[in-house]
Amino acid sequence: MKLVLFITTIALFTSCSVLNKAKVHQRMSNDLDKYTYNYSLKELFNKVDASLKDNSITDGKFIMVSADPRMPKPDAQDKNREKLEEGFTFNNKFYMTSNDIGFNLLNLDFSGAKDKIFTSKYHVIKNDRKEFIIVDSDKIIKGKYISKDKSSLKVEIITRVIQPVELSLDWLSLVKGKGLKILSNKSPVDLEKTLNYTIPDKASELSYYFKFNKEEANKKEADLLKQL
Fold it and tell me: Of the candidates 64, 68, 59, which has an alpha carbon nearest to the alpha carbon of residue 24?
């Protein structure tokens, strides 16, 4: 009986602890909406870049925030991720995660392909003194200049991809007397149009906060937990 009571008490304590931490993380993630890092934009870019290279965005920290109701179902999001990794266009350039080009690129204007086709684990599609934008699979990571020694970081998740459909005539079918046929072919993801379909990725933003400002984040977490 005492053992059952002990196990029940531990379970309740653990459950309350998890719920409290989830509340605190939700509060912290909301506070990041107006948060600025005490890093120059270049320093912030280098930190994000290093995290993506060593795949250590969470730094071992388990983040708990509420799921956005606008987030697609897992199967649908997996398909979004797959299409983006297969390839997307942005500013007349083609980016892909895989080395296997699965698209018909003949209809794309890629003169000087060496400078317009990029294969990488993640892609830096913009990086200047005012802003950087990184595409990491279905995530968009944006850093913005605030002042000489301050910058902000936002992460978004792409919830829908736009792939233009190109129509062409099947001339071989026409020559063989089989009638006129229209062929359709989906082009790579159009990132410019796809960027209209994103939602904030609060979990990733909070993960970066714990990684880049670890001492400050842990203290804030502890202080908020004490208030509950």
Answer: 64
